[in-house]
Design a protein that fits this description.
The chain has 280 residues and is of the alpha/beta class. The chain has seven helices and 14 strands. The two termini are 44 Å apart.
């Protein structure tokens, strides 16, 4: 079956997969309307990330679903539309009706089912767990997290000698991730990761801390996707030197997470453009 219709709390979730052939679109619309009437539904989310191609007749059927929902003050969103499907929709001039979002959370926000700038401890946990895993696997080092805290304006911009920073962008969250190490810890980590002694921080090896930030974000993204955050990756940057200063790419509230290791303490920072003070 190339589709599933799954009633959810407050909306109807439809999963489309494979290739949608012309001969089965009428069966779909009938089944959708039955489920919609059962729950008196007004909102629908179509997950189409696993959809390889769609016919124009299917597109017209989706427009009919859109019109049915619109008639009861409802709406629909597509999630994860690939380039081929987008091209069909755009060629038919229907991209303003069949709006696509990157993530489920982005669609939920558009439909009023989630808050646009919600940021809670469930968002922090993926970064915390990703940091632990990255240091264990990449650096052969156990780390113990401390209590996350809100960074004050009077605090130093970062808390180490070598720092990597990378932007975090999604439809529901914009901010940055930073990791900051002392020079001594950087030397230890560099030695463990590269298998050779590191005597000093140089232009040749400083990119290592940026790569750590990149790996941590990549690991965190796996769990963030499960929470509905569609994270877009970016290139990290690095800065080093005693008492160096670096600003996050965005402005907002910043959470600092300290980590203890046998070689000392390092910190990660997650900056959000949303108010998280009541969730820590």
């Amino acid at each position: 079956m190339p589709y599933e219709i799954l009633p959810q709390h407050g909306y109807i979730l439809v999963k489309l997969t494979g290739e949608l052939l012309e001969e089965n679109f009428k069966e779909f619309s009938t089944k959708f309307e039955v489920e919609r009437k059962k729950m008196d539904g007004k909102l629908a989310v179509f997950q189409v990330a696993d959809l390889s191609m769609i016919s124009e007749k299917w597109i017209r059927e989706l427009v009919q679903v859109y019109k049915t929902l619109k008639a009861v003050n409802g709406a629909l969103r597509l999630v994860g539309t690939n380039d081929k499907v987008k091209a069909v929709i755009e060629r038919m001039g229907l991209d303003r009706l069949l709006v696509s979002k990157i993530s489920l959370r982005g669609a939920m926000i558009d439909l009023g089912l989630a808050k646009a700038k919600e940021f809670d401890v469930n968002f922090i946990n993926p970064f915390l767990n990703a940091t632990l895993k990255t240091f264990k696997v990449q650096c052969f080092m156990e780390a113990k997290p401390g209590k996350p805290s809100l960074k004050k304006a009077s605090d130093p911009l970062l808390m180490g000698d070598v720092s990597g920073i990378i932007s975090i962008t999604s439809e529901s969250f914009v901010g940055t991730l930073a990791i900051s190490l002392s020079e001594a810890m950087f030397k230890v980590i560099s030695g463990k990761m590269l298998g050779e002694t590191c005597e000093a921080v140089t232009e040749d090896n400083v990119d290592l801390v940026g790569e750590l930030a990149n790996i941590i974000l990549g690991q965190a993204t796996i769990d963030l996707q499960k929470l509905g955050y569609g994270i877009q990756m970016a290139l990290p940057s690095c800065v080093w030197g005693k008492d160096h200063k670096i600003k996050h790419f965005r402005s907002g509230i910043c959470i600092v997470i300290p980590f203890e290791t046998e070689f000392g303490t390092f910190h990660t920072e997650v900056m959000s453009n949303s108010n998280i003070a009541n969730h820590i």
